[in-house]
Amino acid sequence: MEGFSKQQVKIEPPQNQIDAMIDDSSIPSIKKLDDATINKIAAGEVVVSPSAALKEMIENSIDAGSTQINILCQKSGFDFLQISDDGHGIKRLDFPLLCERFATSKISNFSDLRRVGSFGFRGEALASISYVSKVTVTSKVANSELAYSADFINGLMLNEDGQSPKPCAGQQGTTIQVRDLFANNPQRKKSMGVNEEYGKIVEVVTRYSMDDKKTDLSTHNVQRPSLADINPAESEKLKNQLRIEIIKKTYGQNQAGREFIDVVDSLDLFQYSLSSILSKPNTLQSKKSFFLLFINSKFNQLNLCLLDRLVESEKIKRTIDSVYQQFQPKGGYNYFVYMSLFIPSEQIDVNVHPTKKNVIFERQEEFVEYIQDLLIDKIANTTGERSYMLDRQSRGQMREDLQSASLPYVHTREPSDHHKKNLNAMKMVRTDSTAQTLDRFLVQGNLSNSNKTLQDKQNVVSMNIVSVKKLIYEFENDIDEKLQETFRKHTFVGTLTPEQVLLQFGLELVLVQVEPLLQEFLYQQVLRQVQSMEKYRLFNPLSIQELLKISLDLPESHYNPKIHLRKEELIEFYTNKLVDKSDILNENFGIEIDKETASLVALPIIYEVVKPYPEELPIFILRLACDVDYSCQNRYYHQIAEELSFYYSKLVQLFNIHNVQGDGSLGLGSLGAGANGQMAVINGQKDLQRTREEELKWQYANKLFPFMKTNMSIRKKFGDVNEMTFTLITKVENLYKVFERC
Ligand SMILES: Nc1ncnc2c1ncn2[C@@H]1O[C@H](COP(=O)(O)OP(=O)(O)OP(=O)(O)O)[C@@H](O)[C@H]1O
Ligand SMILES: [Mg+2]
Fold first, then answer.
1. 173 lines ligand 1 (CB under 6 A)
2. Helix (H), strand (E) at residue 148
3. Where do the DNA mismatch repair protein S5 domain residues begin and end (predicted)?
4. Which CATH architecture is the domain 35-205 placed in?
């Protein structure tokens, strides 16, 4: 044991003796590079070609607020490249720093980078150009009588005294001349063909003129509108039309395509908006693909975006490749895609590379996936890949028809209305069971998928539909974090009435209005199940005409014979409309209408516990016909989901009016969608009603609330002080006080 406790003594020779003993003369030593070499190496990264130098100088001119930029070049810019602008110019005293590395007027410290509003900010471009060519700068600022000029090489000003630039005559603005580009780097020069480089120069000029309505491309002059000229309210659509003209003029139809898809989109989640032009698949004759990506980054004092930064994003490019590959699987794919993205500068990193060309987005994966879905959706819609899409003409026609017809409207529901406890309106539903033969509403469950769990179903939701994805993003990102957290951990205390339950939130006892909560839950469920909705089949198909007839007799329809069309005309109009839209309704939402007989044959199973009940069906059908804007995909997904959730959340009627008989088990089956899936309407049988009450309580405690607990986004509106869905009844400490008194 002792041996272990003895300290071992390590004898080491002094470091210099060790060094002397080792022969390392063959290993090169590390030395610090001199500034000139560092700068030359760095210059090679920024100025890789004449077109790269031109890009930097155009960006400088734009940063200087120029309204007109003229470009001249000889031998593709290798011999001579000149760019003149009418921007704010360069102050005489700034000349010595102009070509020095990391000297800039655009940012002062690193934090400025978060909101950089200019193309440049690194103070490297002119310095780099001066390391690979001879540079002459002439500039005049507005309040100076004279212009000044100086030559630069290797970052230094070359004037006789090495200090001040020479005074000369000149117009306001800056002219930069670049001579003998890459004369000191013949390998680089050789690697670039003069013709090929000329093409690139034209492309740079073209790209920067893309956002400009006053472009004269034929002379390769880029005329930019004055800032005052730009009308921020000008619609993106109109701008895209102009862009299409420019694209066609510049690239020709072979290169750019004959037909384009115009995409304008925005999403609050990423605080982004996009304006894009895509060539339709299979319309491009050229084999080459073009992708122009601009990020808006120049703002005026009002924070309105004025100009775009031309960038590259390998991620987005690969996504576009894959999208077109899907539509042009045979024989390769090709495309012309122009994209102008507006994203707040805090959400993009442009400082990835000295050329500032590459960008990384915040939440890049998610963002790029969103873009991918959007493109697929837009292309699929325009190329008619979706069977339910109507052609534009008939959509337009339908709209006109609707506008010209004098139609009744179904009262638009105020979102807060049904959150209040006032349920009188619902009790006003006029039902005449003998005249309307409600028995015909008997519903049969669709058994084929009944053993699938809801979660399974949700996993197969088609997330390709951007409009749906957007709506899901909306509620998933509108969460009241605190309330969500407490709701996730709630304990179910008990059901007071079908409309009210008690939950325990930590130490608090909370009264919950079921209907508004259920409605929100169903809305979310509908959207998650779009295109994978299971169905209840009706025993007997129900004539849409008859349903509409019933609905127009109901007070909620607000039908007024004095101001509206005759009932028969309306019924016919709406029946045709629903038949016309039946593909949208069926494929997405499981609302199946037989086109031949114009009758309803199935309704969706949104959530097993909640059933469609007959009394509100006519008004639901009327709402589907007249409250949904089928011409706009973004809107109709939201509106139909809302209608469905409203219709299915009417628990009170469900509870009071009809009963269910099923396979006898207490769970899903007993409510009608189980093994034999039968549901029957039985009026006035008190016993069964009591059983039903018991069942509902059981469903709340064991199915609905546990499921909502983990699968529902509790939106901010529920946390609002005026919102009555969750009401605090008491806190545990108060109860203790009561107990103490007892
Ligand atoms: N055409 C111009 N008009 C007015 N000022 C200019 C012009 N070109 C360059 N400058 C001035 O010279 C400075 C250096 O330009 P340079 O392009 O090297 O750097 P930068 O634009 O600031 O950053 P980056 O290297 O990212 O482009 C600019 O900050 C600007 O003040
Ligand atoms: Mg610059």
1. no
2. strand 147-153
3. 247-380
4. 2-Layer Sandwich (3.30)
